[in-house]
Design brief:
seven-stranded mixed β-sheet, globular, about 300 residues, Metallo-beta-lactamase, Chain A, 16 strands, 2 domains, alpha+beta
């Protein structure tokens, strides 16, 4: 398996691509070598595979962009070094039950998901996880990692900007985590997700100046122009979902009907958690449209678009 996994070096950064270019449940992790420390960001299942064949150097710290199963799958390989995550997501490392609270899935989905996180993604509690905050700067020895808080996907989701160069910190690679730029679009379907925070974080990502932009899933590494193009399409998926919802609400619809219609996922058979994600995601759109008076609640739990 690991012979098929690609590594790409960009200055002090090595992108450790997962299977299928980081297709879920795998992902693309970052290895960063400074003169004094080597760190790994979001160790994925691909890192677990590499570790089994001795393909990793000594790691001094683990950084997580946020606390989700696919991003922490390799954390357990490094029990004797500090783990870092944003303070808003640190609770997820206290216990498996606290971790489940991030998702907010109801039973019986919660129990099955709990078991999968333990068995497939090797969830390991770490109550002493070291929290970081927005604009924290970590010096690895002529290589720096800067934290950019970018909530919405989770409360603590963050981007990490790697900076280096002969003329100071003039070379940059921005790691976007799960601002993943895929055609699926932004994911804000968990208990710790927030639609409007995600939109603000997309604006933050747009403003970051770097030579390279890396995502955890699928896309990999992009130069500035294609990054901006993909980011615009990615952000527009939110607009497309809301527009489609307003069209669907030309007739009164219940929340159950909205969930069944599928605005985030494709219609048809789906994973057991999809209804929960649809309900939470589109519920945030409904709340916003109600506040803007574009939709009204004609009876409890039943909504219709107002005439334009």
């Amino acid at each position: 398996m690991t012979e098929q996994l690609e590594d790409r070096e960009i200055g002090p950064v090595t992108v450790l691509f997962g299977e299928g270019g980081g297709k879920y449940p795998d992902g693309n992790s970052l290895l960063i070598r400074g003169d004094e420390e080597t760190i790994i960001i979001d160790p994925s299942l691909g890192v677990v595979a590499r570790h089994g064949e001795g393909r990793l150097p000594e790691i001094h710290r683990v950084f997580n962009s946020h606390c989700h199963e696919d991003h922490i799958a390799g954390n357990h390989l490094f029990p004797n070094v500090p783990w870092h995550v944003h303070s808003a997501d640190a609770m997820g490392f206290r216990s498996i039950d606290d971790f489940m609270g991030i998702y907010g899935f109801p039973e019986p989905i919660r129990s099955g998901w709990r078991q999968r996180c333990l068995e497939t993604f090797h969830y390991t509690p770490r109550p002493d996880v070291t929290p970081y905050a927005h604009d924290d700067l970590f010096d690895l020895g002529d290589v720096w990692v800067r934290i950019v808080h970018a909530p919405g996907h989770t409360r603590g989701h963050s981007m990490l900007v790697v900076e280096w160069g002969d003329r100071g910190r003039d070379e940059r690679l921005a790691y976007l985590g799960d601002i993943e730029l895929t055609g699926f679009g932004p994911y804000y379907g968990d208990a710790w997700s927030n639609l409007e925070d995600f939109e603000r974080s997309l604006d933050t990502a747009r403003s970051i100046e770097a030579s390279w932009y890396a995502t955890f899933h699928h896309i990999g590494v992009l130069a500035p122009e294609p990054f901006q193009e993909r980011l615009a399409r990615f952000a527009n998926r939110i607009v497309e979902r809301e527009t489609a919802l307003l069209e669907y609400l030309e007739a009164p619809r219940s929340m159950d009907e909205i969930v069944a219609h599928r605005f985030v996922y494709r219609p048809g058979p789906a994973a057991e958690f999809v209804d929960s994600v649809e309900r939470r995601s589109m519920g945030m759109h409904i709340e916003r449209l109600l506040a803007r008076q574009q939709v009204e609640e004609v009876e409890p739990g039943r909504y219709v678009a107002r005439p334009k």
